[in-house]
Design goal:
One of its GO terms (molecular function) is glutathione transferase activity. The chain is of the alpha+beta class. The protein has nine helices and four strands. Strands 2-1-3-4 form a four-stranded mixed β-sheet, with helices on one face. Strand 1, helix 1 and strand 2 form a beta-alpha-beta unit.
Length: 209
Amino acid sequence: MLRILGRPASINVRKVLWLAHELGIPFTNEPWGDGDISRKLDDPAFATLNPNLMVPVIEDGGFVLWESNSILRYLAASRDRTDLYPVAPRERARVDQWIDWQSSDLNPAWKYSFLSLIRRSPGYDDPQALAANSARWNDFMRVLDKQLQTTQAFVSGDNFTLADIPVGLSVHRWFSVPIERPQLEAVSVYYETLSEREGFRLYGRNGTP
């Protein structure tokens, strides 16, 4: 039984939950993290698993791993799902490119908007900063839209892969946060295509931004 540690509202935890569903892996989800119902990350029991005190963490037959994208790659590779994570170097590199793009470019672009409009965090109440951040976020979504216009399917090509999990969750967040958004037709089609997958409906487009 795969253990997935992390509160299920976390976007990074939801990556792992979605993939576990796609793989058909029996799993338990332990809600470590912030919130009243969660177990606190400063618990020594959690620190022994991840000294960074961040989620998600998995325990798979005694093997402990943290960092959500590393977990995605491990789970797909360990279950021999080459359809999700190809073996051929160029095909794998294209999947990795979009996973890393989501993490290094798209993810930071929504920070101010998300903390301002969803979390209502103190210090994130400057209208000009919010407008600038929203514009930057939209710029990266235009990059994604152009890629989807090219593939006419999924983010790295014709088939659903690991890259669509972090990117798909990011698309859901973009549609969920109340910013001014441009009409991006390819992104909208992609969102509806992903919504045909049960895993995305359960852990992506499930009411949580």
